[in-house]
Amino acid sequence: MKKRLLSLLLLVVPMLTFAQEKGLDQKIDEAFKPVSDFFSDVIFFLVYDGDVKIPFVLILLVASAAFFTFYFGFPNIRYFWTAINVVRGKYDHVDHHSAGDPALAIDGDIKGTIEDESKEGEVSHFQALATAVSGTVGNGNIAGVALAIALGGPGATFWMIVCGLLGMSTKFVECTLGVQYRDVGEDGTIYGGPMYYISKGLKEKGFTVLGKVAAVLFAIFCIGGSFGGGNAAQSNQATVVLKELMGLESAAAGFWIGVVLAILVGIIIIGGIKRIASVTEKVVPFMAVLYILACLYILGANFSLIGDAFGVIFTEAFNPKAIGVGGVIGVLLVGFKRAAFSNEAGAGSASIAHSAVKTKYSASEGLVALLEPFIDTVVICTMTALVIVIFNFGGHFEYGADVSTDGSGAVMIAGEVVQGAGITSKAFAQYIPYSNIFLTIAVVLFAVSTMISWSYYGLQSWKYLFGRGKRADLVYKLLFLTFVVVGAAASMGSIWSFSDAMIFAMVFPNMIGLYFLFPVVKKQLKRYMDAIKTS
In this structure, which topology does domain 2-534 adopt according to CATH? Predict the structure, then answer.
């Protein structure tokens, strides 16, 4: 299969070269614009004060996260150390332990079958966490946070942290359900995610048709998100920083960088979740730790300014001074949107990776999953924000000043228009020699890790719609690798908007499942905590 996929990819190369010469990327951009505009209208249909747009999906995400936080008694705080211990393997023995009635195990399972059930799954708790984190920790932590602060000012950081803490509860709910309702194939392969807990769970509740429709919609949106935000957008950002580092300007250079990235990603994703997990468990911790150490070095060098940075973050969260931000509501929306897009809590995507874990207690993996928004948003995004805020104490750019023509939130630094990762790069360069090389490596590795994780999310959704045959797998993987090249070579304004909309659109069908099934999660949490106490 590997040779067949790579040979097909090489056949696509001349086709894409021809398309590039004919300006097809611009035609694709125009074709996607009506679709992206439609989804934007659906997502942004509430308006505040006739000026500031309030995304309805953002209200749904934050309100749901707050509800789950209160309903489960602040699991993001109460079970934080339990989650760390699960990842460490401290409670692995619980999967092989039976309690209660000597004849029956927990939930009425026959005692002799419990150990067999615990063998279901393909990856460890740590590998599942690494795979899911690799899908969220990426260029959003480098470029997205910078744009959020540029647009909303330092106060956006405060609301970003609040949203990240609340999102931990949502991740716990959806990833518990992912394991609870997963399918196990005859060969032991795991199939899980919102598609399965929506359809199976709602069928249990007597809403079979609603469950099937919502599951299909989720799968469609997830495939769209895997081609766009989880793929083309990532390869595009990686290509931009590589071209800048190497001093390349031609579109052809971007195309060939995309080909190399596609081959690299293809070699990894052909091996399925086990190979993806084996790669992400090495790459993600390495890059995350390296990036955090770089941030800590900068913060250490400016230790006396950390208190001032937190002070301005807190003050401007409630009294923003950024021009054009739209007051407290505006800065709150900027922070919430960045956090929601960064950690994807509520989108349901991460539950696809967590479903493959080896365990018989679904809540055990739900607890592991609540660490994701903490790592992604509370730790990594906050460190990026502190570095940028401290950097801008020197007055390098004006908060809220959008000098770009496309509304992307670019700022002017020393007479140069800088966007996204460029802002973070300027901040790093002031304190770390050759930081441009480090950030380029970080952006590329984060992009690759995000792409391979999203390839798994999209493939599972594709399988749900088109079956689990090898031919269906091959078609999806070929399309996915093609979008790696397209993303690197094309200018994709509308496609970016479309891909963002796809990921946010996943929230609606996913939330249907969460609201119907959260009592199941409470039962499974009690089951697991009781098992820990009696083991």
Answer: Hydantoin permease (1.10.4160)
Residue with tokens 């690197």: 488
CA distances from 156 to 148, 162, 525 (A): 7, 10, 33
Spell out the domain ranges in the chain.
2-534
216/200 Cα distance (integer angstroms): 12
Helices marked H in 114-193 — which ranges?
114-118, 125-136, 139, 145-152, 155-180
Residue 357 pairs in a beta bridge with 123
Whole-angstrom Cα distance, residue 86 to residue 367?
Answer: 8
Count Cα neighbours of 382 within 13 Å in the Cβ-side half-sphere. 20
Task: Write the DSSP symbol of residue 123.
Answer: B
Phi then psi for 50, rounded to 5 degrees?
65, 5
Task: Report CA dihedral (484, 489, 493, 495) to the nearest 10 degrees.
Answer: -30
pLDDT tens for each residue of the chain, 535 residues long: 555 555 545 545 554 554 554 454 555 556 556 655 665 555 555 555 556 667 778 888 889 999 999 999 999 999 999 999 988 888 888 876 554 433 334 343 434 433 444 456 566 777 777 766 766 666 667 777 888 888 888 998 999 999 999 999 999 999 999 999 998 887 778 889 999 999 999 999 999 999 999 999 999 999 988 888 788 888 887 887 788 778 777 667 777 888 888 888 888 787 666 667 677 777 777 888 888 889 999 999 999 999 999 999 999 888 877 655 667 777 887 788 777 777 788 889 889 988 888 888 999 999 999 998 898 888 888 999 999 999 989 888 888 765 554 445 566 665 565 666 678 888 888 888 888 888 888 888 888 888 888 888 999 999 999 988 888 888 898 889 888 888 777 665 655 666 667 778 899 999 999 999 999 999 999 999 999 888 7
Outline where DSSP puts E strands in 276-385.
Answer: none
Question: For the stretch 457-485, what's the b/e string if a residue is b when 16 or more beta carbons lie within 10 angstroms of its beta carbon?
Answer: bbbbbbbbeeeeeeeebeebbbbbbbbbb
**Region of 97 on the Ramachandran plot (φ > 0 left; ψ -120 to 50 alpha; else beta):** beta
Burial of 202 (0-12, 13-18, 19+ CB in 10 A): buried
Q: What burial letters (b/e) apply to 115-134, b meaning 16+ CB within 10 Å?
A: eebbebbbbbbbbbbbbbbb
Fill in the DSSP letter of residue 100. S
Q: CA-to-CA distance for 461 and 442, rounded, in angstroms? A: 29
183-184 and 190-191 beta bridge pairing: antiparallel
Q: What is the 3-state secondary structure (H, E, C) of 451-517?
A: HHHHHHHHHHHHHHHHCCCHHHHHHHHHHHHHHHHHHHHCCCHHHHHHHHHHHHHCHHHHHHHHHHH
